[in-house]
Specification:
Distance between the termini: 51 Å
Low-confidence stretches: none
Strand order of the largest sheet: 2-4-5-7-6
Shape: elongated
Mean pLDDT: 78
Structural class: alpha+beta
Largest sheet: 5 strands, mixed
Length: 340
């Protein structure tokens, strides 16, 4: 029964109780006038007793409702995170239950967030410790060789150079992990403003132009030079740069990397397309995973974070990153970003 109807019925019962007994006293007084005072007293007592019984029953029902709610709250406190109080009725008490359920929802959200933060920190610590083992072990070996061959300048120079490479690898690993940690923890506020896409991509091209020329690879830009995009220039440059670096690592001398862009009423798309080695079909669903290294790839460069970081940056821009590839024919990564 609905609370409003229940209250109305309760008040109706009290009204009837308060009405029936006086009417009955009047009728009996007419039949036996000499006992009119007795009938009046009896009717008053009867009306009072009836009202008290009705109130007692009404309060018992409310007590049962509150006890059931208290039991559900206690169940929640005992780690039943799905606990809640039924509050699909009207009335003040159900409004109270609704507020209690709101508190439960907020508490669950805080607990989920705390669990995600702990899991995130655990994963980051595990990733760092796991990924640092290899370069640190290599550095230890190189240092031992340098100490043993201190009298041989050529050997010292060779392993000093290898040590420098491992140190660069460690620095890159830590920098990328920190960037990902800041993104995933929501510790970064993107500074979104209009940017010219052609200028932004030309800046990325300049960063890798020397390397591409050394490796005899072409980087070409193609698109409307007036196209603008709302983005954080620093972070989007980082994302596109990681995709370009990945393309350079999987192409050979004489290959070409085309960066083209186009804009529709809703989206701005940037595509990095190469005619390199392509991606094995088995790897396509895993390439954005942190530290993923293909068993089919002969490439030993990088630390396996570039694509994952690029995807995190683009998703922070409310965009998406897609890949299509054909083994031996090349790969294309497409960034899709909302126009506004």
């Amino acid at each position: 029964m609905k609370p409003l109807a229940e209250r109305s019925l309760f008040l109706l019962k009290i009204a009837l109780c308060g009405l029936i007994f006086p009417v009955l006293a009047v009728i009996l007084s007419c039949l036996a006038p000499e006992k009119a005072l007795l009938w009046l007293v009896l009717s008053s007592v009867g009306a009072l007793a009836g009202i008290l019984l009705l109130c007692q029953r009404y309060l018992q029902q409310r007590d049962q409702l509150l006890e059931a709610a208290a039991a559900q709250i206690a169940d929640y406190l005992l780690a039943n995170r799905q606990g809640g109080i039924a509050c699909n009725e009207d009335g003040a008490i159900y409004h109270l239950f609704h507020e209690v359920n709101s508190l439960v929802t907020i508490a669950n959200a805080h607990a989920d967030n705390e669990r995600r933060v702990k899991e995130f920190l655990r994963n980051i610590i595990s990733d760092i410790s796991h990924q640092l083992k290899t370069p640190i072990a290599a550095l230890s070996i190189y240092n031992g060789i340098i100490q043993q061959e201190a009298a041989d300048p050529e050997t010292v120079q060779k392993f000093a150079s290898l040590s420098e490479q491992e140190l660069d690898r460690i620095e890159l690993l830590i920098q990328n992990l920190l960037k990902m940690a800041r993104l995933e923890a929501g510790a970064i506020t993107l500074e979104l403003k209009p940017e010219n896409v052609a200028e932004l991509l030309a800046q990325v091209r300049r960063q890798y132009l020397f390397r591409s020329e050394q490796e005899q690879k072409q980087i070409e830009l193609l698109g409307n030079e007036q196209t603008t995009l709302i983005c954080d220039r620093v972070w989007l440059t980082e994302a596109v740069g990681n995709l370009l670096k990945n393309a350079l690592e999987h192409t050979q001398a004489g290959d070409k990397i085309l960066i083209r862009w186009q804009q529709s009423p809703c989206l701005t798309q940037i595509t990095l397309e190469d005619n390199g080695s392509g991606i094995h079909p088995e790897d396509l669903y895993h390439i954005f995973k942190r530290f993923y290294r293909s068993r089919f790839s002969k490439n030993t460069q990088g630390v396996g974070l570039g694509l994952s970081l690029a995807k995190s940056i683009i998703e922070a821009h409310r965009g998406s990153l897609e890949v299509r590839s054909q083994l031996g024919r090349g790969t294309a990564f497409t960034i899709s970003l909302p126009k506004k």
